[in-house]
Amino acid sequence: MQQAIGMANMAMSRKNWSVARYALSRARVLVEALPANVAVAERERLSAARKRFAARNTPAAKKAKQAKAKATATKRAGGKKPAPKKSTTKSTAKQPKPAPVRDLGDRFINRAALGYGPTNETR
């Protein structure tokens, strides 16, 4: 029973929710098999683990996760941000390049072969 509760807590800390669900169901079966006065501490641990599992997708849990991420980001920044570097090259207004013109060469369509004109005409 203690092993199943421990496995559920470990799976929840790793965010492996399917394993946590299975471990919680095994622990619940084991706790229900014992008399109510025997495993009081384990029942409390199991209920705490169930609450933690149930709170994984709540808005409060998401806010806590965002606050934690924000706190670690500010710790990494060190409080000061470096000033943006100024470009040393002169910025000139660049003209957009014209699209290249495709040279198709001297191509002629043989209209007679397509059936649009007389076949005896030559160029």
Instruction: Compute the number of strand runs.
Output: 0
What Rg do the Cα atoms give? 37 Å
End-to-end distance: 97 Å
Biggest β-sheet strands, sense, barrel: none
Measured by DSSP, the beta-strand proportion falls in under 5%
Q: Give the helix proportion (percent range).
A: 40-55%
The class by helix and strand makeup works out as mainly alpha
Q: Counting H and I runs of at least 4 residues, what is the number of helices?
A: 5
Residue-averaged pLDDT: 77
How are helices and strands ordered from N to C?
A: HHHHH
Note the overall shape: elongated
Question: What is the topological layout?
Answer:
Elements: H1 2-13, H2 17-33, H3 40-54, H4 59-77, H5 111-114
Helix pairs in contact: 1-2, 1-3, 2-3
Characterize the structure shown:
The chain is elongated, with a radius of gyration of 37 Å. It has helices at about 1-15, 15-35, 40-55, 60-75, 110-115. α1 packs antiparallel against α2. The protein is mainly alpha-helical and about 120 residues long. The mean pLDDT is about 75.
Summarize the structure.
The chain is 54% helix and 0% strand. The chain has helices at residues 2-13, 17-33, 40-54, 59-77, 111-114.
Features:
single chain, 123 residues, mainly alpha, 5 helices
